[in-house]
Amino acid sequence: MSAGVQSAVSLESRFARELPELAVPWRAEDFPDARLVVLNEHLAAELGLDAELLRAGDGVRFLTGAALPPGATPVAQGYAGHQFGAYSPRLGDGRALLLGEVVDVAGRVRDIHLKGSGPTPFTRAGDGLAAIGPMLREYVVSEAMHALGVPTTRSLAVVATGQTVYRETALPGALLVRVASSHLRVGSFQYAAATGDAELVGRLVDFAVARHYPHLLEAENRALALFEAVRSAQAQLVAQWMLLGFVHGVMNTDNMTISGETIDYGPCAFLDGFDPAAAYSSIDVGRRYAYGNQPAIAGWNLARFAETLLPAFHENRDEAIALAQEALDAFGTQYSAAWSEGFRAKIGLREGVDEAVTGPLIGDLVALMQGSRVDGTSFFRRLADAARGVPEGARGMFIDLAGFDAWLERWKQLAPDPDAMDAVNPVYIPRNHLVEEALAAATDGDLAPLGRLWEAVTDPYTQRPGFERYAEPAPEDFGAYRTFCGT
């Protein structure tokens, strides 16, 4: 590694050092023909990294894990998980690697993590590699979510590996350089709990609290306090997903973070039309992770998290279960409050409006949107126009015109604020047809559509000339959308 890159990067190995039972030292596969595809310069600056150094030869080698600072200890992380409801005791980083942790310019500890870097001891039947399309999907969608204000893992870079990856067809290989406040997940606790080592679970609790919720270090019942903090973070997160029409697609317990960040943008999508049953993942044949199921699945995942912590909640199992149930019961209330508050903001209602009025108003609008399969992103921006006295755009999206007209009159009596609506309702999201168009072009070597999409979705609330097609719903011939996890 050149002195320039070496002096710019300092990788800590706190996870590997403090939780060696959950970390297998490993090296990324060597990719001698690696080539930088895209680099997130804004995120590089946040991390205190020099973008120009990262673009150079040794910088690209750093991004692939081939050239690391002295003392770095890359590891494959061990975790378990419920996948589509079925428990797998040993999952882990089958094609990923934690290079280490950096302290960013704001003083926050952040993981630098590779995805698609080759097989590890946790690799099962796969090859440990990734194709360029799914890696660019995560790059674009995760950064769009960040711009939308949703807690999320971030994407620093996508690097072409120079290898061919075989899926349904032969595809160019790539890896993603991902950044997160950590990669601790419910599955990490499931893995630790399965060992039967209470001391290990206790150390994992301490590590998670210190990393994400240091204000809880003095809590009388630290494990319970951690669970309550994660529950609250997930209630807020899933409410934000629902308000934006985001469908995660693979809400396994190994994809629920302790930090409350969105992780794993495999078979994800945004609603083309309002439909609680919408599920886009090619492998979710039972629609377990459909859009409307996401709050309930989050609660189910949290119950599995609580099970791992029962011995730490209380030495008496009955008392521990009672504490867990009480804490878990609050999830529904917190989620509903977060969603209701967010929806009131989306329709421009000021604080203090009686819940007895807003509750039925919101419920009736949701029913109307579902009945007409309304594209929510377009609708809420047009609804702001209706608040300015131009209702035709919003009205034209509904089949039941009389029903919407009646709703509109009730809503207008509450004096909604259109400027406040524009501040929370995006113009641009990573619409499914635009994502697929950009990924197809990038797979063929043309990055221009990806760059243009990136421009739109990383400034989602500002309507700009020249970006009209990025605000439009999918064309009718786009058809039923299916996404794939990429493994």
Written overview of the protein:
With 487 residues, the protein is α+β, with helices and mostly antiparallel strands. Among the domains are: 3-183, no CATH class; 187-344, no CATH class. Helix content is 45%, strand content 12%. The protein has 18 helices and eleven strands. It has helices at residues 3-8, 14-18, 41-46, 51-55, 57-63, 132-147, 186-194, 198-212, 222-244, 294-313, 317-346, 355-372, 376-387, 392-395, 401-412, 418-424, 432-443, 448-457; strands spanning 23-25, 35-39, 75-77, 81-83, 86-88, 96-103, 109-115, 154-166, 170-180, 246-247, 269-270. The strands form four sheets. It has a five-stranded antiparallel β-sheet. Strands 1-3 form a two-stranded antiparallel ribbon. A hairpin with a 2-residue loop joins strand 4 and strand 5. Helix 17 (432-443) runs antiparallel to helix 18. The radius of gyration is 23 Å and the shape is globular. The two termini are 31 Å apart. The model has no long low-confidence stretch (mean pLDDT 95).
Q: Could you give the topology of this structure?
A:
Blueprint: H1 3-8, H2 14-18, E1 23-25, E2 35-39, H3 41-46, H4 51-55, H5 57-63, E3 75-77, E4 81-83, E5 86-88, E6 96-103, E7 109-115, H6 132-147, E8 154-166, E9 170-180, H7 186-194, H8 198-212, H9 222-244, E10 246-247, E11 269-270, H10 294-313, H11 317-346, H12 355-372, H13 376-387, H14 392-395, H15 401-412, H16 418-424, H17 432-443, H18 448-457
Antiparallel strand pairs: 1-3, 2-8, 4-5, 6-7, 7-9, 8-9, 10-11
